[in-house]
Design goal:
With 469 residues, the protein is α/β, with parallel strands linked by helices. It is 33% helix and 17% strand. Helix 1 packs across helix 10, helix 3 packs across helix 4 and helix 5 crosses helix 6. The C terminus is likely disordered.
Length: 469
């Protein structure tokens, strides 16, 4: 992207590389600093070390060899001894963009409460309706009382939308309202927009910190360990899989097909399958499969029905795209966030299975198709995700108050870090089908890998020498 600043790097001994995030002082020199009032906060009075050391960093790779270079690191998240904003000068705003995800309201709540209770900030606005809300909708005043129980609700109290990256209008609104901290919650498209907004703010020389909280139910954000809402999604997917198992088991040659989220990444389908133990076959975008012929899906279905009398198939929404007929695809159309639109693979594969067994094998089957997509997206976060959302929100607030900007937050090897937007936006995280996790799934379901000899040979070639476990 033209005009985007390069990642700040610091090189040290032994191959140590710190991929740092921008700071307000990079383009506004001689900014005054202030004493962090967390030192006087009763909640932190018993903490042995209130503040993160300035040199603390977290390694991206935790498994190394004795002669490995130290590798890439990220700046550790947490409160700093000096801050670059006084409490009464902070005017923060929060915006949510993209699709719904369990835990959105928890992140909003904890950003508000962290600003109020940790740093004494009492001016926080909610931007209504995503990025467009900066210049086309009203704002919502957010207080601890207003957000007190929103974590118990699904969705987002701020509303959301896709697209709307008119950076000039957005930054004009930020400047006109006197906003100096912007918290942006959203997925890869949203974080790309956040990077553009940060660059425009930097170009104008504004003292405005831009902090991102990565959100994707599909868990396809790179670098970080996982995205919030993923645990809840996997847990809720169990309900649909259990229902499909009950339906399939109640009929002779019963087949339950469950479509789960995963446009480009099959993490929800994979983890839900491993957790369930009721799934006979899992189909994901990263692992091509075929229907007809020896070793194909139809042959496996027939064999499993003869063995067990019923079966459950989990399919991620982006699986089998290469098999969909061209006239059924969306002719390359994109949604407002720039994502390719997809035909419903669950309906398509259900129809293909029905047609095959009616015409080819003359085998009477009973197929039930379940699509819980929006039921999963709309639920509130579970206990695990609520704790995780709290940590994300607090890390974002600590970073913004310390003057960091142009960053997103997330755990790397269990430690929360500040990560440059460029690293989050460079690619999508995907299931590695030559990894042991996918092998565990194949072993659990006893399904074929559907990988052709050519694909297997290429995978081994890419891997190089065999590695011991």
């Amino acid at each position: 992207m033209a005009g985007v600043s390069q990642i700040k790097t610091v090189n040290g001994e032994g191959g140590y590389v710190l991929e740092d995030v921008p700071h307000l002082t990079d383009y506004i020199p001689d900014l005054p600093t202030y004493r962090n009032q967390l030192q006087d906060n009763p909640a932190y009075s018993t903490v042995e070390q209130n503040f993160v050391n300035v040199d603390d960093a977290v390694a991206q790779k935790v498994v190394v060899h004795n002669n490995s270079p130290r590798g890439t690191h990220f700046r550790r998240a947490g409160p700093r001894q000096k801050v670059y904003f006084q409490s009464d000068e902070v005017h923060a705003c929060i915006v949510t963009c993209g699709g719904l995800c369990p835990g959105l309201n928890t992140v909003i709540r904890e950003i508000v409460c962290s600003l109020y209770h940790m740093y004494g900030v009492n001016k926080v606005l909610g931007i209504d309706g995503g990025y467009r809300g900066f210049y086309s909708k009203n704002t919502i005043k957010l207080t601890p009382k207003f957000v007190d129980d929103i974590h118990k609700r699904g969705g987002t109290i701020l509303g959301t939308s896709k697209g709307g990256h008119d950076k000039s209008k957005i930054v004009d609104s930020i400047q006109d309202r006197g906003i100096n901290q912007v918290y942006i919650i959203g997925g890869d498209g949203t974080q790309k927009g956040a990077a553009v907004i940060y660059e425009e703010i930097r170009r104008r020389g504004l003292k405005v910190a831009v902090a991102g909280v990565p959100k994707t139910i599909d868990n396809d954000i790179p670098v970080i360990d996982r995205s919030f809402g993923f645990d809840t999604a996997v847990e809720e997917a169990q309900r649909a899989i259990s229902a499909a198992h009950v339906e399939a088991g109640s009929f002779e040659n019963g087949i339950g097909v469950v479509k789960l989220m995963g446009r480009h990444s099959g993490f929800i389908a994979m983890h839900a399958t491993l957790a369930s133990r009721d799934v006979d076959c899992c189909l994901i975008p990263e692992s091509p499969f075929y229907l007809e012929g020896k070793g194909g899906l139809f042959e496996f279905i027939k064999r499993r029905l003869k063995e067990n009398g019923h079966m459950v198939i989990v399919v991620a929404e982006g699986a089998g795209e290469n098999l969909l007929a061209k006239h059924l695809q969306s002719m390359g159309l994109q949604d407002a966030s720039g994502n390719n639109l997809h035909h419903d693979v669950g309906l398509w594969i259900s129809q293909k299975i029905n047609d095959h067994f009616a015409r080819e094998d003359k085998m009477a089957i009973t197929l039930k198709y379940i699509d819980p997509t929006y039921m999963i997206r709309a639920v509130p976060g579970n206990a695990s995700d609520n704790v995780y959302c709290t940590l994300l929100a607090q890390s974002a607030v600590h970073g913004a108050m310390a003057g960091f900007t142009g960053f997103t937050v997330g755990p790397v090897n269990g430690q929360h870090c500040y990560i440059p937007f460029e690293r989050i936006n460079e690619r999508q995280n995907q299931v590695v089908i030559t990894d042991r996790m996918w092998a565990r799934l194949l072993s659990s379901t006893d399904q074929p890998s559907f990988m052709s000899p050519k694909v297997v040979a290429q995978s081994k070639k890419n891997q190089g020498r065999p590695r011991t476990l």
